[in-house]
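FAQ

Q: What does a record look like?
A: Structure on top, sequence underneath. For example:
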């Protein structure tokens, strides 16, 4: 059954009667990330085929090997040319009886066949993707059909989501191009899910005062559709990037001559490429956001969901590859002096230090096991990272993305790593921790007011009551009761969930900074009598009370509220925090709703999350039967 979302539309004029926007979900497909590319599974002539979602491709393009495998009839051997980062590629045309993605089917379509660049998978281009509005939310691709929605906010997951202006998508060349600002200059950016990395065109970068060749930066080799390599200059630091109100300071973005190869190969390149975009927003940017393209409204809605905005490759004029794995025959470690970090003895492999070009340093390290466990040294499997400019420690996650937390000062190991790598840093001060609600602390020295917003660092009190651990940067709009976590300089303000931990933390910080904050709006009291029996599973003194009165089914999901209650002696509630959440009963996934964000994730069997999903889904099922 097709899912329909009904959203209230604004009146066309004061005299016109309000109309209802009907936003119909017409199909969806799960997505996976492979080598920084967004991959789905569709069918061609009823045969399952993996496909790359490529909003930078104007048409569907089939690899020649797939045409042979499926025995597709070739309509024309040499129909024309496709152009991309690798220049021009000769194309033919093959005929198909049907192609289906996520329940959306095209019949009797002729498709381009790439004859030159040896593609491995089908590229699903804009002629298929933008038949409808398109949402990409991290775990699925969704098609929507809007009716009477011209003035309606379509970001149903977050009515306050930032909006970027989307250019008119010409049917002959329907690229999704949005307006961004880099170093204060307006640029046209192609949103290209088929590009693993965000890139700024070399000519544009030079106009912005960034010229890698002039600075002696050596290029790397990249490519795309076409037969040539593309020269790419990695990790150039710009002053600021902004899209739809979201801002990032000092972002590292790679630079490339985006269409140089195509101009060389095409005698009419000056005509076809005169209106080429200034930059490409690649899959790294898309992976950090939930986006909804609405060509009819000329809008792209986006919400930051976490992770690095840009994953620029490292420069080849620095060490050309990440540090060799510990124990590698090609790497001879040079262990530095022993430092104590958090009470654990650690040594840094000085020979593995690698400056990444964005103010961070990666290196191998080893720790010493306690003496009662033989006292031997053990090399850590993943590189450690120091952020010299923002004084943060980090590690490399399994997905290749860095994860940081503020360094607890003083941090002599951070200072030594940055000194050895030749990156300037200023010595940090010990934080001035001030107690806050919910076992949190606020660094009073970190309180800074900028553009009417309050920025500060937060720590957590350990279980023993004597450990202070910095773990989060926060920004609060005290006047409007909004907050956001800060990733680098990137943040998206969301309304506070009143009565919850973050609201109490924001109130404490605004009080410390002596900034006025209006009182919280009245919230309907929770019906404790209707609460499902507390969940006391696990090895800590926490219970999860689910408020049965808040259970509601919307958009195929069960929405509910639960309390995390700290139990002093296993029975008496000492403190509670109410959290909004959603569950997908069909796929056994759940999510806490951070503000209005919902990112559903699978729950592991036997965990508190699985028990919670089982309870709310059973209760919702009983309610439907009544």
């Amino acid at each position: 059954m097709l899912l329909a979302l009904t959203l209230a539309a604004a009146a066309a004029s004061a005299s016109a009667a309000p109309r209802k926007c009907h936003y119909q979900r017409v199909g969806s497909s799960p997505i996976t990330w492979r080598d920084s590319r967004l991959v789905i599974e569709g069918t061609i002539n009823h045969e399952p085929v993996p496909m790359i979602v490529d909003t930078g491709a104007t048409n569907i393009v089939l690899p020649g090997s797939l045409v042979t495998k499926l025995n597709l009839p070739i309509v024309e051997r040499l129909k024309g040319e496709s152009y991309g980062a690798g220049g021009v590629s000769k194309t033919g045309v093959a005929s198909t009886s049907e192609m289906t993605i996520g329940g959306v089917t095209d019949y009797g379509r002729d498709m381009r066949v790439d004859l030159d660049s040896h593609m491995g998978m089908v590229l699903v281009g804009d002629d298929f993707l933008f038949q409808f509005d398109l949402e990409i939310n991290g775990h699925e691709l969704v098609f929507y059909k809007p009716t009477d929605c011209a003035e309606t906010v379509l970001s149903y997951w977050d009515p306050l989501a930032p909006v970027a202006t989307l250019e008119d998508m010409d049917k002959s060349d329907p690229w999704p191009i949005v307006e961004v600002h880099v170093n204060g200059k307006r640029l046209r950016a192609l949103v290209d899910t088929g590009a693993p990395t965000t890139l700024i065109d070399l000519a544009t970068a030079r106009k912005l005062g960034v010229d890698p060749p002039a600075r002696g930066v050596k290029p790397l080799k990249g490519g795309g559709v076409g037969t040539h390599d593309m020269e790419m200059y990695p990790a150039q630091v710009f002053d600021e990037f902004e899209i739809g109100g979201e801002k990032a300071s000092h972002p590292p973005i790679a630079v490339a001559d985006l269409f140089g190869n195509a101009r060389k190969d095409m005698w009419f390149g000056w005509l076809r490429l005169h209106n080429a975009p200034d930059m490409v927003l690649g899959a790294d940017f898309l992976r950090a956001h939930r986006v909804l393209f609405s060509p009819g409204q000329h809008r792209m809605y986006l919400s930051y969901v976490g992770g690095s905005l840009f994953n620029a490759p490292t420069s080849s004029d620095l060490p050309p590859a990440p540090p060799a794995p510990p124990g590698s025959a090609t790497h001879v470690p040079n262990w530095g002096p022993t430092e104590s970090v958090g009470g654990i003895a650690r040594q840094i492999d000085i020979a593995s230090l690698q400056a990444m070009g964005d103010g961070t340093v990666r290196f191998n390290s080893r720790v010493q096991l306690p003496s009662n466990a033989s006292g031997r040294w053990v090399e850590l499997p993943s590189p450690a990272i120091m952020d010299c400019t923002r004084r943060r420690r980090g590690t490399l996650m399994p997905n290749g993305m860095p994860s940081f937390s503020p360094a607890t000062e003083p941090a002599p190991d951070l200072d030594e790593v940055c000194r050895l790598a030749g990156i300037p840093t200023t010595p940090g001060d010990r934080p001035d921790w001030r107690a806050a609600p919910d076992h949190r602390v606020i660094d009073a020295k970190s309180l800074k007011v900028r553009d009417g917003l309050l920025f500060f660092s937060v720590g957590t009190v350990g279980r023993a009551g004597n450990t202070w651990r910095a773990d989060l940067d926060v920004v609060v709009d005290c006047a409007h009761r909004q907050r956001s976590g800060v990733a680098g300089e990137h943040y998206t303000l969301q309304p506070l969930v009143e009565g919850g931990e973050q609201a109490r933390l924001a109130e404490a910080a605004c009080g410390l900074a002596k900034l006025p904050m209006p009182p919280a709006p009245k919230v309907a009291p929770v019906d404790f009598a209707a609460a499902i029996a507390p969940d006391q599973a696990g090895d800590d003194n926490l219970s999860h009370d689910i408020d049965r009165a808040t259970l509601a089914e919307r958009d195929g999901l069960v929405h509910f509220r639960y309390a995390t209650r700290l139990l002093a002696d296993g029975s008496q509630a000492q403190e509670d925090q109410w959290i909004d959440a959603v569950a997908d009963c069909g796929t056994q996934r759940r999510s806490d709703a951070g503000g209005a964000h919902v990112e559903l994730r699978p729950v592991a069997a036997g965990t508190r999350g699985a028990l919670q999903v089982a309870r709310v889904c059973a209760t919702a099922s009983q309610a439907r039967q009544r």
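Q: Is there anything notable about this one?
A: The chain is about 10% helix and 40% strand.
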